[in-house]
Amino acid sequence: MRICWITISLVLLTSAPLSIYSEQRHLVNMTLVQNATAQGAGNLPAYHLDRGFGTGARNWLLQFEGGGWCNDIESCLERSKTRRGSTRYMSKWEIFSGILSNNASLNPDFYNWNRVKLRYCDGASFAGDSMFRNETARLYFRGQRIWKAIILDLLPKGLNGADKALLSGCSAGGLATFLHCDNFTKLLPKNASVKCLSDAGFFLDVRDVSLQHSARLFYENLIVLQGAEQILNKNCTSSRYYPNQCFFPQYALPYIKTPYFILNSAYDVYQFHHNLVPPSTDLRGHWKQCKLNPASCNQNQLIILQGCFRFEMLRALLFFYEYSRKGGLFINSCFAHCQSESQDTWFAPDSPRVHNKTIAESVGDWYFERKITREVDCPYPCDSTCHNLIP
Ligand SMILES: *[C@@H]1O[C@H](CO)[C@@H](O)[C@H](O)[C@H]1NC(C)=O
Ligand SMILES: *[C@@H]1O[C@H](CO)[C@@H](O)[C@H](O)[C@H]1NC(C)=O
Ligand SMILES: *[C@@H]1O[C@H](CO)[C@@H](O)[C@H](O)[C@H]1NC(C)=O
Ligand SMILES: *[C@@H]1O[C@H](CO)[C@@H](O)[C@H](O)[C@H]1NC(C)=O
Ligand SMILES: *[C@@H]1O[C@H](CO)[C@@H](O)[C@H](O)[C@H]1NC(C)=O
Ligand SMILES: *[C@@H]1O[C@H](CO)[C@@H](O)[C@H](O)[C@H]1NC(C)=O
Ligand SMILES: *[C@@H]1O[C@H](CO)[C@@H](O)[C@H](O)[C@H]1NC(C)=O
Ligand SMILES: *[C@@H]1O[C@H](CO)[C@@H](O)[C@H](O)[C@H]1NC(C)=O
């Protein structure tokens, strides 16, 4: 029997309807990086760059694309034949919205920065460096080299003269920010103001509902297969009995020196569906309805979501909340995953708020040090501003 700490009361869910926010689609083209050492089988690293202007011309926002991971040869081989595994199969134009928008009324603080989307095709949050080959198959795990090649390409395009910079990303891209944040700072001018933002990247070292460490096992396999050990923070790995745990943000964060903003839902739907209740733990489908609609969760399921997931998330962030002088936080209680890239959740008349502040306002206040921003929402279902975005 699990012990959970929070007693909950059942109230009917009222979730805000999704807004159809009229917005002109802003498309940005792809730039391929011609760098042989970073490529695998003719597949070049790629990014999309939208130039900054006016007062933002010397500021840079880099955003890692997300998209899950692959942690064994079979799944990586499958992936290599899709847009998740090769820039060859990717869309050549990307919509820049939310934090990437170039419109001041949709993205008040970053609209005129140089904005870059780093395309994700390595399957390990840009962290791997290894290779697999046998007579019939060949796989390149080139995450670290792709990261480096893209940065080297951007430096002479103005990144080497940056005044302000923000490294962001969502999901697997949010996790990538933790792995590369201090490295990013080192590559930029000493006097630049550099900060990092993780959106839905705070993956917890949480036990699943059958009490197994399935998330830990998943990432362990990923690290070993793709050769990601070298990139883990040395001060973190030397402090832990299981060094590979430093892939988890909760253990690495205290060792990261660059100022951080953590944006996450306390009921992150990806983690809920894959790490807390992976399909293998729910063969009978008891969680099916609850996964599709939080209003259908029974009392027991809510206790697990509140006490064993939200509680664990807040506990993992307590140190950061209390002691990080330059840190920012926005932990809302929406069933969502990634809230900075879509206009609806980033900055719109009806977008999610905590203490009446949108995510865009919170991130901006933190970045520009206008206000200390550490927003933690009340537990589900109290927040009526949510856009519950369930895949
Ligand atoms: C992509 O955009 C840049 C800047 O607008 C331009 O210089 C370049 O020619 C474009 N490339 C393609 C393939 O359209
Ligand atoms: C910026 O967004 C606002 C609000 O959606 C819209 O009215 C305006 O036309 C947009 N401006 C441009 C240049 O797209
Ligand atoms: C090469 O590895 C793949 C993936 O593990 C496997 O399916 C295939 O049979 C292997 N080929 C040989 C010749 O061993
Ligand atoms: C940054 O990361 C790259 C790729 O992992 C590595 O080669 C490089 O040495 C790092 N730079 C610094 C200054 O740590
Ligand atoms: C290509 O990438 C590698 C590793 O990422 C780096 O060491 C090398 O300097 C890059 N070459 C060029 C021409 O940018
Ligand atoms: C950093 O130093 C360079 C060179 O001295 C200067 O041009 C730039 O304006 C400085 N940037 C900031 C943010 O102070
Ligand atoms: C580890 O900590 C020491 C002392 O605070 C610091 O000088 C060093 O840069 C840190 N190393 C990394 C990889 O963060
Ligand atoms: C919430 O903020 C909006 C502006 O973003 C303001 O118009 C509104 O009055 C505020 N509501 C409360 C209850 O403070």
From TrEMBL:
<dbReference type="InterPro" id="IPR004963">
    <property type="entry name" value="PAE/NOTUM"/>
</dbReference>
<keyword id="KW-0961">Cell wall biogenesis/degradation</keyword>
<dbReference type="Pfam" id="PF03283">
    <property type="entry name" value="PAE"/>
</dbReference>
<keyword id="KW-0378">Hydrolase</keyword>
<dbReference type="GO" id="GO:0071555">
    <property type="term" value="P:cell wall organization"/>
</dbReference>
<comment type="similarity">
    <text>Belongs to the pectinacetylesterase family.</text>
</comment>
<keyword id="KW-0732">Signal</keyword>
<keyword id="KW-0134">Cell wall</keyword>
<protein>
    <recommendedName>
        <fullName>Pectin acetylesterase</fullName>
        <ecNumber>3.1.1.-</ecNumber>
    </recommendedName>
</protein>
<dbReference type="GO" id="GO:0016787">
    <property type="term" value="F:hydrolase activity"/>
</dbReference>
<feature type="signal peptide">
    <location>
        <begin position="1"/>
        <end position="22"/>
    </location>
</feature>
<keyword id="KW-0964">Secreted</keyword>
<comment type="function">
    <text>Hydrolyzes acetyl esters in homogalacturonan regions of pectin. In type I primary cell wall, galacturonic acid residues of pectin can be acetylated at the O-2 and O-3 positions. Decreasing the degree of acetylation of pectin gels in vitro alters their physical properties.</text>
</comment>
